[in-house]
């Protein structure tokens, strides 16, 4: 089993948010694990999707620092899971393609740990926001929605491109087979026709 440690840290003021997005290739008959340090009582969200390969399915598990399985799904194309860490330590996220002996899989997954620091400090207090603060918050939320939409459409575009390329490859192979058959039939017909016209007349001997 291959294990990778892939942690990306985005420092946002006092509250810290960890975020990672990764697209990688998972070979056939293999398992890949990632580790993320999470402190107790911190909210974590993980989302994944199989972009290409086979039937677009993969096994996924999440374990806490003591090895207790928090999440386990078999042969899923996509899913998301959120949990509150009950212990401090390294949480393990594993993707397995051990059930496949031929096809590689390309997997996208993202993970967010912690809460984002409020854009405006007064949002933590029970006070009304002024017009500028309200506009900033609205723009910020809109930008987050745009980022989420872009990620979603990039994944859809990747799935569509892989599907289209697969169809294009099959069409080209089938077209090549059809052309080969046509050439063989054409050559065969030429030889048959030549054989018909080149038939020698029987020789008849006449005595005088």
Descriptive account of the structure:
It is a single chain. This protein is an alpha+beta fold and 208 residues long. Strands 1-4-9-6-7 form a five-stranded mixed sheet, with no helix packed on it. Strands 2-3-10-5-8 form a five-stranded antiparallel sheet, covered by helices on one side. Helix content is 32%, strand content 35%.
Summarize the structure.
The protein has 208 residues and is of the alpha+beta class.
Write the layout of secondary structure elements.
Elements: E1 2-4, E2 9-11, E3 16-26, E4 31-38, E5 43-52, E6 58-63, E7 69-76, E8 78-84, E9 89-96, E10 105-113, H1 131-197
Parallel strand pairs: 1-4
Antiparallel strand pairs: 2-3, 3-10, 4-9, 5-8, 5-10, 6-7, 6-9
